[in-house]
Design a protein that fits this description.
The structure holds 2 protein chains of 2 kinds. Chain A is mainly beta. Chain A has a single domain, classed as Porin (Beta Barrel), CATH 2.40.160.60. A 14-stranded antiparallel β-barrel of chain A has the order 1-4-5-6-7-8-9-12-13-16-17-18-19-21. Chain A is elongated. Chain B has 2 domains: 327 residues, Rossmann fold (3-Layer(aba) Sandwich); 117 residues, no CATH class. In chain B, strands 7-1-8-9-16 form a 5-stranded parallel beta sheet, with helices on both faces. In chain B, strands 3-2-6 form a 3-stranded mixed beta sheet, with no helix packed on it. The N and C termini of chain B lie far apart (73 Å). Classes of the chains: A mainly beta, B alpha/beta. Chains A and B meet through helix 1, strand 2, strand 3, strand 19 and strand 21 of A and helix 1 and strand 4 of B.
Chain lengths: 422, 508
């Protein structure tokens, strides 16, 4: 009971999800505790995500890993030129995962994973200084991935499988910086669609180069979530033919970018060292272009993300029969380029510090706990490409305005999971 | 071990809930911004419609919220500023009632016809702000629309009873603390630590917007009881009244800023309708000229008779050409030759028409409201009676160059007084005249655009063409904050004027 209470306290805390962009790198408590390394770590069925080729090297017939993370994230904003301040409102993101692997025979294994690699929950106070860019956004994507792992030799295996992605988005922003109705209420739009789905795939390889050294590579394809016939709801629109906004449908593409991971692990006595390198192909995210179903002018928010790297280091120590201790560090490069720093993905480069442990309860059950502290420096940044758009007489429109200031993020992520081996 | 885990999780939870990202130097930290040598804990603003936040031809609630004193007071909040109260109206319509009877109309909004052509129109609706039932002051914002310099010291200017008979101001009557009090007395009773004073605009503006339909009292009467609402206040009177006001405000040790009077002729009310506005083809121009041939001929005889000078004759000569023409007008500064023309045998109606007739010149200013009469045919039974072609624009529609000079002369005298008193009292001096002139001439760049004085599209002015838009008021607030920062070694942050609106779009 006490534990439940404590967890409740935890989850009451706050919100914003992430790793660079809207990638949420929280796909396993064991891996996260080691800096979210795992492409060359043969540990548990978390391999379904990190490297399905490695499943075939797992020692158990059946391995199940289930867990979740509580993302406690906040962003503070201030502009010293105007004195404006803002802070994201409390909420919580709870990415989860469930993996199962099954050893069919000596050279063949199957796996199934359900996980949430992309998502975002950011909520500012309505009508805050940057409300023309975002009031609040909630983006979820769930991946379902059946996998197969084939041992081609004692040292080399390949794996992969299709990915079914399903997701939804709810995005609210004010139309521009000044448009109001007669009573001064800011004009706004809400874009909402659920049940958007698409297919992708993953492929990987693993090489047990020596007794102690393992090398792995994993590629996950881009999946574009295409909203079509979503609901666009306009509110507080002036009663004027000069502001032709009315409720309609919308379509928009949101790319969930491809990711390539390469890494290695090295075992020495009770220690295991792991290194992963991620390349996330964020350059696919050029703009958030919203096309409306009626005469409402299209909205194009330029993003111009660039491909971004992440460098991950992890260490594992088998302290005793029942305890395994883990620690890690990673450097997460932001895909956001100068001048494109938008408050709905307010991310600069960050340093991730991780720790965790596994406690063995008997032979089959393990409890995995992890903790991530993501450290951000203050950053002076701006989004320089907002177009005021329609909503005023000609001459007041079609100029870029800039929204910027100083941002500071903080992210804490406790996680808990279980691993069951048979 | 289980207990240890519980303990750790609990510790984490406590740590996390209290772990919000904090800036090394937060703008909310004490001392991030500096009040310098001034004390903003009790700011009081005095002035006229500009200070009240009047816009779109009315005083309405959201306009008041975007008044420059209110914007400044919000920024003063970063350097120890206190609450700033305003005599807020009851709605966003702007019309005013006196004992349930509507005495002033609603504000203007930008409407559009079926073809999308925009035009200003009064907002429909029944206003709820009543002079007789409003909350009493004093308020930190003591801006009273329509007030001239001497009105701030006129007892009874806030008398409800005086509103009906025209001796009192309805807006001040809403919140005056007594029937006999003055704006200045109510303001001083607040014991301000900081004040702004922007008064004197209406001492010339009434004359200007009425096309010079008043008396220029410069060098003339100092007896206020003789003054009409469109007169130019004698600068001697202005100096005397204004210095008394400043004395009263600084008596308690308050610091403040004095704001000078902008050039009224750079506002859209005077710059939107061009002096040349009557398009005619060659045949029509010829026909109209034939109508004025007798008048043009008579001018020579008037010179010969010594009634007018040759220069005046040249000014009065009428000539229409193919293309866009200057309309005809009545100029009260011309010699009135009506009686002479009657004596020469002209009927009195025609003689009156020609008595002070000339065409508008390129340096005259035609007011915004002339756009609704120019080229119209007021008498349907006489299709040849066209305003500007055969019917002269009346005096109220044109501010002639002579009249502009009178406005400028008085304005310059007021500003010399204001600047001198600012220097003598160690107060800030806001050169609003130069700031507005810059907006009118080159525009002021801001984040996302260029603020100009162009009607509707320029962004600086509301639909009445005289008063600023919220964006224009934000620009005003920034201009004054600059002066305060310089004068008092303060570092008050300014606002992003691009986040303030301009004109309100609405179809009734």
């Amino acid at each position: 009971m006490k534990k439940v209470l404590l967890l409740t306290v935890l989850f009451l805390a706050t919100a914003v999800t992430y790793a660079g962009g809207y990638r949420v790198s929280l796909q396993g408590n064991k891996a996260l505790a080691m800096g979210h390394t795992g492409v060359a770590v043969i540990n548990s069925s978390e391999l379904v995500f990190f490297n399905p080729a490695g499943l075939v090297y797992l020692e158990n017939k059946l391995s199940v890993s289930v867990g979740a993370h509580g993302v406690l994230a906040d962003v503070s904003y201030q502009n010293s030129a105007t004195g404006e301040t803002a802070m994201t409102e409390a909420g919580v993101g709870t990415p989860f995962y469930a993996y199962v692997s099954y050893q069919a025979n000596d050279w063949l294994a199957f796996g199934l994973g359900i996980y949430t690699p992309y998502g975002s929950t950011v909520a500012y106070e309505d009508d805050w200084a940057g409300s023309h860019l975002v009031n609040n956004i909630a983006l979820q994507a769930i991946f379902v991935q059946p996998s197969v792992s084939i041992k081609l030799s004692d040292k080399f295996s390949v794996g992969g499988g299709p990915i079914y992605a399903t997701g939804g988005v709810n995005f609210n922003k004010n139309l521009n910086r000044t448009l109001v109705d007669l009573d001064g209420n800011r004009s706004e739009v809400t874009l909402e669609q659920t049940g958007i789905s698409n297919w992708g795939w993953t492929a990987s390889a693993m090489l047990k180069a020596s007794e102690n050294l393992t090398v792995g590579a994993n590629y996950r394809s881009e999946i574009v979530l295409s909203a079509e016939d979503g609901d666009a709801t306009f509110e507080n629109i002036p009663n004027s033919p000069l502001t032709p906004f009315s409720d309609t449908t919308f379509s928009a593409d949101l790319p969930l970018p491809a990711e390539l991971t390469m890494g290695l692990s090295y075992k020495h006595n009770d220690f295991l060292f792991a290194f992963d390198y991620n390349m996330t192909y964020w350059s696919a995210y050029e703009s958030l272009a919203v096309v409306f179903g009626n005469d409402t002018p299209d909205s194009v928010l330029l993003r111009n993300y660039r491909d971004a790297s992440t460098y991950r280091f992890g260490l594992q120590y088998e302290a005793s029969e029942s305890f395994t201790l883990r620690g890690g560090y990673y450097f997460d490069e932001s895909p956001v380029q100068s001048g494109y720093f938008a408050p709905e993905t307010p991310r600069n480069d960050s340093n991730g510090y991780t720790a965790g442990l596994t406690f063995k309860v008997g032979d089959r059950l393990e409890i995995d706990a992890s903790f991530l502290y993501l450290q951000f420096d203050e950053v002076d940044a701006s989004y320089d490409y907002f177009v005021e758009g329609s909503g005023g007489p000609a001459g007041l429109i079609n100029q870029y305005s800039s929204f910027g200031g100083t941002y500071k993020s903080s992210v804490f992520v406790p996680g808990l999971g279980i691993t069951y081996k048979l | 071990m289980k207990n240890t885990i519980k303990f750790m999780i609990g510790l984490l939870a406590i740590g996390l809930v209290s772990c919000e990202p904090e800036f090394e130097n937060a703008v909310t930290d004490e001392g991030f911004y500096d009040a310098g040598d001034a004390d903003f804990s009790n700011y009081v603003s005095l002035g006229n419609s500009l200070t009240a936040g009047y816009a779109d031809g009315a005083l309405y609630r959201s306009g008041q919220e975007d008044s420059y004193p209110n914007i400044m007071a919000e920024q003063f909040g970063f350097v120890g500023g206190g609450d700033f109260t305003q005599p807020l109206t009851s709605d966003n319509l702007g019309g005013l009632l006196l004992g349930g009877q509507q005495i002033l109309g609603n504000r203007l909004v930008l409407s559009a016809d079926e073809n999308g052509n925009p035009f200003p129109a009064p907002l429909a609706g029944t206003p709820t702000t009543d002079v007789t039932t409003s909350a009493t002051g004093p308020f930190n914002n003591m801006g009273v629309p329509g007030a001239k310099s001497y009105h701030l010291k006129t007892p009874g200017y806030g008398s409800v009873a005086g509103v009906a008979n025209g001796t009192a101001n309805p807006w001040f009557a809403r919140f005056a603390t007594s029937e006999s009090t003055t704006v200045l007395a109510d303001a001083v009773s607040l014991n301000p630590t900081f004040f702004s004073l922007w008064i004197g605009n209406n001492d010339i503006l009434g004359y200007a917007t009425s096309g010079g339909s008043g008396v220029d009292r410069t060098g003339g009467s100092e007896d206020l009881s003789e003054y009409g609402s469109n007169d130019i206040t004698n600068p001697v009177v202005f100096t005397s009244i204004y210095s008394e006001q400043v004395d009263a405000l600084v008596a308690g040790g308050a610091k403040g800023v004095l704001l000078n009077i902008p050039d009224v002729t750079s506002i859209p009310y005077f710059t939107t309708v061009p002096p040349r506005s009557i398009p005619l083809d060659a045949a029509t121009a010829g026909a109209v000229n034939a109508q004025f041939a007798l008048y043009n001929g008579a001018l020579g005889q008037l010179v010969a008779g010594g009634f007018i000078s040759p220069e005046e004759a040249a000014i009065r000569a009428i000539n229409f050409v193919e293309g866009v023409n200057y309309p005809i007008m009545t100029d009260v500064d011309l010699t009135d030759v009506t009686a002479i023309l009657i004596g020469a045998g002209l009927d009195s109606e025609t003689a009156a028409l020609l008595g002070q007739l000339r065409q508008v010149k390129s340096d005259d200013l035609v007011v915004l409201t002339a756009s609704s009469v120019l080229g119209t045919v007021p008498d349907p039974s006489n299709p040849l009676g066209i305003v500007g072609v055969s019917i002269p624009l009346t005096n109220q529609f044109v501010l002639t160059s002579t009249e502009q000079d009178r406005v400028a002369t008085a304005g310059a005298a007021y500003n010399a007084t204001i600047e001198g008193l600012a220097a003598a009292n160690g107060l800030g001096y806001g050169d609003m005249k130069s700031a507005l002139a810059e907006v009118a001439a080159n525009g002021a760049a801001y984040n996302g655009g260029l603020l100009t004085s162009t009607y509707v599209t320029g962004g600086a002015f509301s639909l009445d063409g005289v008063h600023p838009s919220p964006r224009g008021y934000a620009f005003t607030a920034n201009t004054i904050i600059d002066v305060i920062n310089t004068t008092y070694n303060a570092s008050i942050p300014k606002v992003d004027i691009g986040t303030y609106g301009t004109v309100t779009l609405h179809n009734n």
